[in-house]
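User: Please predict the structure of the protein below. I'd like the answer in C-alpha cell form so I can feed it into my own downstream comparison script.

Assistant: Understood. Taking the following sequence of 392 residues as input:
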Amino acid sequence: MKVKVISDTLFKLKPVLSGELSDSEKVFVKNGTVFEIESYVATQNNHVRVTLANQSLDREETKVWYAFKPDVKIEASPVKLEVVSDTLFKLKPVQSNQLSASEKVFVKNGAKYDLQAYLPAEGNHMRVVISNAFLGPENRNTWYVYSPHIRIRGTSMKVQVVSDTLFKLKPVLSGELSDSEKLFIKNGTVFELHSHVSAADNHVRIALANAFLGPENRNTWYAYAPDVRIEGNEPNNQPKDLKKVDAATQGSIRLPGFSSTFYLANPILPGGHFTWAEATKNGSRIPVNKDIVYGILQVARVMEEVRKLLGSRPITINSWYRDPVTNRRVGGASRSRHLSGDAVDFVVTGIHPYDVYDRLSPWWGSRGGLASATVFTHIDVRGYYARWSYGF
C-alpha cells in the first residue's frame, strides 16, 4: 500500500491543527511525495493515521504520523476480507469460550476490511492483519478468525527484513561489491513484492513492487536468504491438482541421468513410504532432466521427516512433480517449485491442513516454502522462508 501526498502538507505526531504543535512535532511533506505504508486508519479531526513501512521522517525514526485527510490519497491493499457470518475476531486461534471478553471482538456479517497479510492458523482459523482498521479496546489490527466465517479475495506478497542486511546487485559476499552495488536495509523493513526466486550462494532474487532503491533507482536486488522472510501468495496461484495417486500402480519408468529402471510401486528412498508413482503421477509426468530427479529425492527425505513429526499418520500425495504444461493446466504458480520436483502437496489423515501448517512452520523455518489451502498442505525446499495461504 502507498500514501500519496496531493497537496503540500504537514505530517504530524497528533491529529490536531498544526498551530497547536511544536516544530519537532510536525514535518513538511511536498506535493507528489509517495510513501509505502504498512497500515492506515481514519481518525478524529478529518485526519488519517499512517504507519510508514520503509522510512522515517525525523531523527527518532518515527513510523506513525497523522496527515490532514484532504491532503493525501491512500492506494489501498488489493486484498479484501469480507465477513460472511457474524463472528468473533480473536487474539488466539482457539474456541471463543476459552477467551476473556478483552481477547475477542464481535464483528457483524457483511463487514469488509483491507488486509495487509493473511496466513493459515490452527483450528481452521486464519491469521489476518488488517490495514485500514484497528479493533478492540487496545486498537489491534492483527487477529485470528474462524476461516468459514470470512471470504478473502486478492493476493499480495511482501518481504520483511528480519536482520540488518544488505540488498545487493549480485548474489555474492558483500566484500566483493563496491559501495554502489549494495544498499543497507534495516531490520524490520517491509516491501511489497512483485516476484521472488532462489539465487546462488543462499541468496534470494527479489523484485520490489512499489519501491526503487539506490542511486540508480533499482527494484531488483539480491538478499541473503536468512535475513528475509517472504509472505503472501503469487497472483493466479490456485492449484487444483487434487486427485490422489493410486498406491497400487504397477509399471516402470526411466529417469534422465540414471541407467536403472525405476518401478512405480517402489519407494523413492530405501524403506521409505513414498513411491515413484506418487512423485510422477503414475508415470505420466517424467522429469525432463536429472536435476529434477535430485529435487524429488531431496523433498522425499523431507516428507519422511514430516510423516514422523506428525505421528506417522498416513499421508496422501495430491501433487509432486509437474511439467510446465501440467502446471499451467492445473493453475500452479508460474515459478512453482513443483516444476523443479522439490515440492509436494499432501493431506495428512485426521489433521486439518491448517493444523498441519501450524505444526510444521516453526520446524521448517527458513529451509523452504510452506502453505495451506483448506484441502491440502504444500511444502518445498527452495532454501528460504516463504509462507502463504491459497485462499480456498
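That's the full C-alpha cell string. The mean pLDDT is 91.
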